[in-house]
What does this fold into?
Amino acid sequence: MTRVRTAALLATAVLAISAYSAACASAALPEFSGPLPAPFGAKSGVTTLETVKGAKITCTADTGGGEISGPKTGTIKLTFTGCEFVTLALPCNTPGVPPGEIITGSLLMTLDYISLEPKKEVGIDLSTATGAPLMEFVCGALKVTVAGSVIGKVTPINKLVKPPAHFVLKFAQAAGKQKPMKFAGGPIDVPMTSFGGPFVESGLASSDTLAFPVPLTIVA
It folds into this structure.
């Protein structure tokens, strides 16, 4: 009887350790796997920023780049072109650059799960290190500030991406509501836009390619 109890206790302990190890491994994911740090280039077609009140800014394209510095983190800087405040037909630009051009500062990239069930989806959150705005620019005489942060879905996951193949970072929104609005189990995490007055909830839509010179995998 004593031997049976001992064996049962040992089996229970093994199962507990296995479960703990699996949980720890899961907590470490998702992550970039490959030679890091890794620089990358980014580009997209049309980008739309829309508030829940219907104000809309579009840009015809963006280009930029950055670096994945660790398994879950990186930085990116983008230049948008052909930007217009569609609602009032006004060109938009960062002060000091040509009309239609908006330049961001260095933005932080954070990798995490958007969802785990029914299937795993992974996203990248763009924010700033100090809580400063994501973007500041003018549209005519209007000063526009985009604060908060924004999450986009990144694909593919669990697949080695070799050059010239690339990752796709897709931001989606509808009527000013960002999709997704948060990481799995995390707080609401959306952009907020001010046109010189109160900040209004906003959504960003864009599809950026992230091209690396080395093979990388997003392990999830």
About this structure: The chain has one domain: 31-219. The chain has a mean pLDDT of 90.
